[in-house]
Each structure stands twice: as structure tokens, then as C-alpha cells.
């Protein structure tokens, strides 16, 4: 279980540590590039505002140098799977091409096969807004759904809590305890993607 920066770390550990079979991510983000791009936009950094369109030159700038982009591509969940590309707004959430599947399936098997994920976000979180995680979460949910290209390979439950900011609310605590209990006693054995709004 990780909260905020710990939530970012929980995503990393889940993808890279084979010993970890389940994670509860609370107000964390699996997409470092999206989160930092959002902060650059909101901060009106010159490396964001001077692009045409804004943000066009952020990747590779002094505020997000290519060395950092390469590290994100190697270790960040969204970076590994989707590659930093400036905007995830136009991603195709359907079945990847044959070439992409050849690259993605070994990654997914190594990183996520058989793992359980509970992602908890606050709808009013301004520090780690859900909009930064949502494209990757939707992409991953689509992949592990019963009719997805990584069908039943992992379990993902994504819950966004109305009226909650950058905090772990009592409702999140209850949800996390329930998920951990179910995981430990093994009552849910079918990996699926599940979306909830509370």
C-alpha cells in the first residue's frame, strides 16, 4: 500500500518486483510524464508555454531532459507500456497492432500477470489529479478486461471518490481493507478490470 509519493512508488514496485502480487495505490500516478506535463502547464513554465502548441517542446527541454525521458521509458508504468509522447488524449484503447503486441505481451506477462491492483483516487485531488492517471488506467483496464488483449491476465479495480482531495479518506481506508482482506483469503480468483465511482 502506498499513498501519494508512496502511491507512485507502489506502481513502480508492482511493475518491477516479481515478489509483489498485489498493490493498493492511493492518490498515486502511474504516468510520470503526464503528471509532470500537467504541473508544467499549470506552473506556466517557459518550456511549456513557448511551444506551438504549448507543451510541444517540453519533452527534451531543460525541465524534462532526454535523460529523464529515457529513465521514464524504462521504469515508469505508462512510460514502459506507451512511451512518453506529449499527450495521451488520442491513444487507441483497442487491440494494439501485431508489432505492438509483440513488444507489450512479454512486458505485461513479466510485470503484471496474476497481480491484483486497487487504484484509489480523489475526484477533487489537485496535487495528483486523476486526469493524469486516467488515460493509462483506461488503457490498462481495456487490456485486462475479459475481452481485452491481455484478458484475465491481471485484476484492476479503479475507484474515484467524489469530494475527496489529496488525502486518504475514511472510505478509501474501508475499501483498501476490504481489498487486502479479499486478496489475503483469496476470495477473488478471476482477474478482471473493474471501474467504480464513489
Helix-strand blueprint:
Elements: E1 2-3, H1 5-16, E2 22-26, H2 32-43, H3 46-49, H4 66-75, H5 77-82, H6 98-112, E3 116-122, H7 130-144, E4 155-161, H8 170-185, E5 193-197
Parallel strand pairs: 1-2, 2-3, 3-4, 4-5
Q: Which terms summarize this structure?
A:
single chain, 198 residues, alpha/beta, 8 helices, 5 strands, 45% helix
**Shape annotation:** globular
Number of distinct beta strands = 5
| Rounded radius of gyration (Å) | 17 Å
Class by SSE composition: alpha/beta
Mean pLDDT: 89
Runs in which pLDDT lies below 50 for 5 or more consecutive residues are 86-90
The H/E string reads: EHEHHHHHEHEHE
Instruction: Please describe the biggest sheet, giving its number of strands, its sense, and whether it closes into a barrel.
Output: 5 strands, parallel
Q: Assess the beta-strand content as a share of residues.
A: 5-15%
Describe the fold and architecture.
With 198 residues, the chain is an alpha/beta fold. 36% of the residues are buried. It is globular, with a radius of gyration of 17 Å. A 5-stranded parallel sheet has the order 1-2-3-4-5, sandwiched between helices. It contains 8 helices and 5 strands.
Amino acid at each position: 500500500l502506498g499513498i501519494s509519493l508512496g502511491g507512485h512508488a507502489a506502481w513502480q514496485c508492482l511493475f518491477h518486483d516479481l515478489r509483489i502480487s498485489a498493490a493498493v495505490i492511493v492518490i498515486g500516478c502511474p504516468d510520470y510524464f503526464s503528471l509532470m506535463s500537467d504541473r508544467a502547464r499549470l506552473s506556466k513554465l517557459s518550456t511549456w508555454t513557448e511551444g506551438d502548441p504549448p507543451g510541444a517542446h517540453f519533452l527534451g527541454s531543460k525541465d524534462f531532459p532526454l535523460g529523464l525521458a529515457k529513465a521514464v521509458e524504462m521504469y515508469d508504468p505508462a512510460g514502459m507500456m506507451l512511451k512518453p509522447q506529449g499527450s495521451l488524449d488520442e491513444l487507441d484503447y483497442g487491440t494494439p497492432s501485431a508489432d505492438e503486441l509483440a513488444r507489450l505481451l512479454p512486458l505485461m506477462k513479466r510485470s503484471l500477470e496474476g497481480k491484483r491492483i486497487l487504484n484509489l483516487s480523489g475526484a477533487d485531488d489537485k496535487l495528483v489529479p486523476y486526469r493524469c492517471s486516467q488515460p493509462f488506467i483506461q488503457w490498462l483496464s481495456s487490456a485486462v478486461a475479459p475481452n481485452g488483449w491481455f484478458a484475465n491476465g491481471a485484476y484492476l479495480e479503479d475507484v474515484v471518490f467524489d469530494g475527496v482531495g489529496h488525502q486518504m479518506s475514511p472510505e478509501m481506508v474501508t475499501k483498501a481493507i476490504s481489498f487486502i482482506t479479499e486478496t489475503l483469503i483469496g476470495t477473488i480468483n478471476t482477474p478482471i478490470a473493474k471501474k467504480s465511482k464513489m
